């Protein structure tokens, strides 16, 4: 007997934290062919290039995890890039998926789509019911547009484009940039730097009072695969044509001050922790109601304490690898200089 043709899956943004988690989950499943393109190979903001890629690839399923992302500082510093690039990505990929008859697509958004003053926990019905949080409004609007693109193609053309809105994510592959990262990786970076330089105090932006919900990225990947495996008729009671997105979160929240203490403990930092109230807090509370997705049989598996330890270990290993790379480069420079050969540039520490 001939073996069935494996499902051809395109993961847009496979080198990001979420995309990499999807790659791990699908590799573990082992029954599909993954189509992966990095930014140099395929610019997702280039609609013509995306269309040509879809035309030649025979894609069955798309996971749209690509996005321009960042924390409060990045959102406030680069609002034009955040709205423009995310709109371009959504427009290009979703339209190409329709044009080239992709069977299913999953668009990944964010809990920031909901109004700043939305009732807690936030249900899917809260979308477009009030003003957005100003600090990330451009990004949120782009994600809302992505949802409405999926819904509009579904309504007009009968496509099967689904939308999942995750809470705050963290885990291996996160962005640990000093200024452009989200709160949890930013805290890991800040406390690690304090340990490296023997700082007696770490100052945290904001008051420390906002409450946040966190979901380990591999739990999100499992939720994505679970949702995409559901037949349309099982989703029908949970959604409407113009409210088709589902929330995904851990269901637990923690204060930023408590989170800072957890990170400090995980890294072994024993100094003083203070809070700089001159910086904006962002939304006071963000907890998702994920009951609809849970009714389909999904539940998170990684508690925050465990996920935090995994993420700290990933960061420490990445730092060690970067230091080793730098040391190797210096050794190469010393050797080549001694023989009169031009040395290569030293790579920068990226974590």
Q: Could you characterize what this model shows?
A:
The chain has 351 residues and is α/β, with parallel strands linked by helices. It has a single domain, classed as NAD(P)-binding Rossmann-like Domain (Rossmann fold, 3-Layer(aba) Sandwich). 44% of the residues lie in helices and 15% in strands. It contains eleven helices and twelve strands. A six-stranded parallel β-sheet has the order 2-1-3-4-5-9, sandwiched between helices.
Rg result: 22 Å
Span from first to last CA?
50 Å
Going by CATH, what is the homologous superfamily?
Answer: NAD(P)-binding Rossmann-like Domain
Q: Return the string of H and E elements.
A: EHEHEHHEHEEHEEHHEEHEEHH
Number of strands: 12
Q: Shape from CA axes? A: globular
Q: Could you describe the largest sheet, including whether it forms a barrel?
A: 6 strands, parallel
The structure class reads alpha/beta
Fraction in helix = 40-55%
Low-pLDDT runs: 341-351
Strand order across the largest sheet: 2-1-3-4-5-9
Which fold name is given in CATH as the topology? Rossmann fold
Number of domains: 1
Q: Count of DSSP helices?
A: 11
Which architecture would the CATH scheme give at its second level?
3-Layer(aba) Sandwich
Return the average pLDDT rounded to an integer. Answer: 91
Strand % is: 15-25%
Please identify the top-level CATH class.
Answer: Alpha Beta
Please identify the oligomeric state: single chain
Which features characterize this protein?
4-stranded mixed sheet, 351 residues, 44% helix, single chain, disordered C terminus, alpha/beta, Rossmann fold, 11 helices
């Amino acid at each position: 007997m001939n073996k069935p043709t494996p499902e051809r899956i395109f993961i847009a943004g496979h080198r990001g934290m979420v995309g990499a988690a999807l790659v791990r989950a699908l590799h573990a499943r082992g029954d599909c062919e993954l189509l992966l393109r990095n930014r140099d190979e395929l610019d997702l903001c280039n609609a013509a290039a995306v269309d040509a890629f879809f035309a030649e690839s025979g894609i069955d399923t798309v996971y749209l995890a690509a996005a321009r992302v960042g924390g409060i500082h990045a959102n406030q510093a680069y609002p034009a890039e955040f709205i423009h690039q995310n709109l371009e990505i959504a427009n290009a990929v979703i339209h190409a998926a329709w044009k080239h008859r992709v069977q299913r697509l999953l668009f990944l958004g964010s809990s920031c789509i909901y109004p700043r003053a939305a009732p807690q926990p936030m249900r899917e019905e809260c979308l477009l019911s009030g003003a957005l949080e100003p600090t990330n409004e451009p990004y949120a609007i782009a994600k809302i547009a992505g949802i409405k693109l999926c819904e509009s193609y579904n309504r007009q053309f009968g496509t099967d484009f689904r939308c999942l809105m995750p809470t705050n994510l963290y885990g291996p592959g996160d962005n640990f940039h000093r200024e452009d990262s989200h709160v949890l990786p930013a805290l890991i970076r800040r406390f690690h730097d304090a340990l490296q330089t023997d700082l007696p105090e770490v100052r945290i932006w904001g008051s420390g009072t906002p409450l946040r919900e966190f979901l380990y990225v591999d739990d999100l990947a499992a939720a994505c695969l679970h949702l995409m495996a559901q037949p349309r008729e099982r989703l029908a009671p949970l959604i409407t044509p113009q409210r088709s997105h589902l929330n995904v979160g851990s269901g637990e929240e923690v204060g930023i001050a408590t989170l800072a203490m957890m990170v400090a403990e995980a890294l072994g930092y024993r100094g003083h922790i203070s809070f700089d109230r001159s910086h904006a807090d962002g939304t006071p509370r963000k907890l998702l109601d994920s009951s609809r997705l849970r009714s389909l049989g999904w539940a998170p598996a990684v508690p925050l304490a465990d996920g935090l330890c995994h993420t700290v270990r990933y960061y420490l290993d990445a730092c060690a690898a970067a230091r080793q790379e730098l040391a190797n480069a210096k050794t190469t420079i010393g050797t080549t200089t001694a023989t009169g050969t031009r040395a290569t540039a030293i790579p920068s520490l990226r974590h």
